[in-house]
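so the lab meeting is tmrw and i was supposed to have these ready like two days ago... anyway. pasting both below. for each one the top line is the aa sequence and the line under it is the structure tokens. i havent really looked at them closely yet so no promises
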Amino acid sequence: QVQLVESGGGLVQAGGSLRLSCAASGRTFSSYAMGWFRQAPGKEREFVASITWSSGRTYYADSVKGRFTISRDNAKNTVYLQMNSLKPEDTAVYYCAATKYSGSYSILDYDYWGQGTQVTISS
């Protein structure tokens, strides 16, 4: 069992940066690949980034590649999403999630979800 709590969301101007954190509880955190998803109003939840349990490999949606960086600290049971050069279209609720399937982009493969944190980018 893994429980996830996101933090770090907020309101920033376009071009700014934010770092999201996701604190996990559960003794098997390091066994899971971790992902970030987002959901804008009226839109489906979409994949943003993921990282394998060993931090050996990361995956990104094309829309955030080069601007966002996912990382994890297994000793702290925490995964991060550093978001730079933010755009108004990045506005969404951001969720972290855990999966047994490394590299998965599919919501269906993720077993555990946080409650989400709001990110709002003003133009």
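ok protien two:
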Amino acid sequence: VQLQASGGGLVQAGGSLILSCTVSGKIINTYSMGWYRQAPGKERELVATITSAGRTNYADSVNGRFSISRDVAKKTMYLQMNSLEPEDTAVYFCNADVVSQDVLGQFVAEIAWGQGTLVTVSS
């Protein structure tokens, strides 16, 4: 299972960005997916999650500014980030709770992580 995150970049405060995370591999089912971020010198923190039923949850710091969504057919999750602040500067990681099939045909349940995409918000 591989997760590919993209869409990061440099943006001015008040601007917007859309992050994408695509899941690939022999996926049997994808349950919850989420975005996390890690700022320099800080621990990784939850940004937002979305269940397979579309139920969402947000960190207080981004609630009302960020919106998480997923396209099941495209196996892709998105994070729409509006009204960005310098405090949002971090590497953003996506993860997914998935069941996949390995080379032996066995089902494997795991939490898979993407490689991270850097978001820099200038003041």
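from a quick look at the 2nd one: The first strand starts at residue 2 and ends at 6. Residues 81 and 90 are 13 Å apart (CA to CA). will dig more after coffe
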